[in-house]
């Protein structure tokens, strides 16, 4: 059965969310629920000398105040708090007297009410012995790692650069940024049916549960991870949080359910974030605009005690047909919590730097920026020489240019003027993101009355994963959307893979489709004839069976059965973008129009056109929503978002949504979205490549390039502020 183009359907869980019936992790009701609140460290580095809890214990309603003396038995292992298969976090607060970063928990107050927990936490007094620290990667006490953490090379880029007719050599700086999901990070631990269940908005319920079990010295099956919905993950919720094991341990010790919702201000100092980074980009081209070489060197902030890989160099060499490439990546150690994945984690900063450098090269060549990109299109990966499974980036550019009206572009900055005197700028940038997949374990039951239940691997983070699964079941089985029961994000129903990196749809869609096709096949064997176009449950009813159930394990290309066993043990198993015979990426082109007020230099993004090649579009409505969300985040990255670190005391000064500025409705103009919608059937049976991450890649660069086109000023740091343009 060949996959068809999907209709524009409402989100499968929209009704439940609008009515407030979709219960998130912190919404779960439990009798006798206790509330917890952490006490954050007020120093950036040092030792705890004493903790006075007497005033806190005296607060009416406070049940207990936990300190590091209560949690010394917690174990830290390399796998306990990791994500993406990388080494776990090597430091867990509150298991000893040391303080490694500002804001980490140093005490946990548990009370009958939230108000009592907050009052108790404010009453705890802690004495410290402070030590010297570094708050930023440019501090004198920051420690650069002596060797590069990664390197990419193809050909002799240095020689090509030295002999080129046209070159650019520029450095772009990207600031530290924070996620701020609408759903705050929370943990609820409760005993149900003899099992300790941990409810947390997580992107990896299985690895989360397994990591917690290991930290607490429990058997993995004694702990169940549940993530019914995740209200915005974006990479911040893909590992065990600093408070997770503290809440679980408190519930275990008190034998009562305990809930902690971390205040947003504390999350700036306990949760992961996008690290500060520097990007030196050198590009070389001949007189016709053919790219001869790219040399890309990055430096990224990291914590003292953990590893967060720098992977900025993975995508830029794949965007165009470079004759040669050299990439080096280094990290600098500082005294903060560990940074982590944030939407398009390295791809967004990398595209910002390299796509702005491409724009600068177009200026040096006197070429149209779109024409330069089209002239360097390629169907093969410059690093490995392998072909791409599918690549329609040129079509994204040409269709986007037509929809946007790129023919208005002029080579002279500041030449376009609006009727009110605003300077108009037009910018373009491209992006890519790996098309990755994970194994899945799926059980599908179809009843003769039309009820359909599927349990599979994956987490709903607002990206529309339930709608993706529903689309395949509707097409293959003809099920009624109102009779669908989709069970994901719960290790009690199916092994759960880490859902991130745009592989959610690329893994869940083939799993659902494979299960639906197997069910059709088994029903055909029962009936002894090929099935018709009639809904499958009606054909099942004629066999006089109440239901038919199938189970199927799906493996991504290049993986064997061992991947399923790793999935069952809660280990992240991800493959891509490199497969045995090809590389697979999603592609996008963004076009931005900005208006700059001539006296105040206020920048407004009036219009963005984005065209994506993400393989088969599983749901047009949720797909458009994903791209619009990515563009809005790109607007924030280009013009609004930055963490203001305090070099005197450590930590982030603007640690709330009043001062950490994000775009609001008034900042957003028209965002027009289109798709190539060509299935990538070489990759999987659903033809899906992924969209959520690539939606943001290149969006900020298009806006920065548009600001230059409007003003003639090339700003090489984010965000661009009014004072940069005066």
UniProtKB/TrEMBL annotation:
<feature type="domain" description="Aldehyde oxidase/xanthine dehydrogenase a/b hammerhead">
    <location>
        <begin position="19"/>
        <end position="132"/>
    </location>
</feature>
<dbReference type="InterPro" id="IPR037165">
    <property type="entry name" value="AldOxase/xan_DH_Mopterin-bd_sf"/>
</dbReference>
<dbReference type="InterPro" id="IPR000674">
    <property type="entry name" value="Ald_Oxase/Xan_DH_a/b"/>
</dbReference>
<dbReference type="Pfam" id="PF01315">
    <property type="entry name" value="Ald_Xan_dh_C"/>
</dbReference>
<dbReference type="Pfam" id="PF20256">
    <property type="entry name" value="MoCoBD_2"/>
</dbReference>
<dbReference type="InterPro" id="IPR036856">
    <property type="entry name" value="Ald_Oxase/Xan_DH_a/b_sf"/>
</dbReference>
<keyword id="KW-0560">Oxidoreductase</keyword>
<dbReference type="GO" id="GO:0016491">
    <property type="term" value="F:oxidoreductase activity"/>
</dbReference>
<keyword id="KW-0500">Molybdenum</keyword>
<dbReference type="InterPro" id="IPR046867">
    <property type="entry name" value="AldOxase/xan_DH_MoCoBD2"/>
</dbReference>
<dbReference type="InterPro" id="IPR016208">
    <property type="entry name" value="Ald_Oxase/xanthine_DH-like"/>
</dbReference>
<dbReference type="Pfam" id="PF02738">
    <property type="entry name" value="MoCoBD_1"/>
</dbReference>
<dbReference type="GO" id="GO:0005506">
    <property type="term" value="F:iron ion binding"/>
</dbReference>
<protein>
    <submittedName>
        <fullName>Xanthine dehydrogenase YagR molybdenum-binding subunit</fullName>
    </submittedName>
</protein>
<dbReference type="InterPro" id="IPR008274">
    <property type="entry name" value="AldOxase/xan_DH_MoCoBD1"/>
</dbReference>
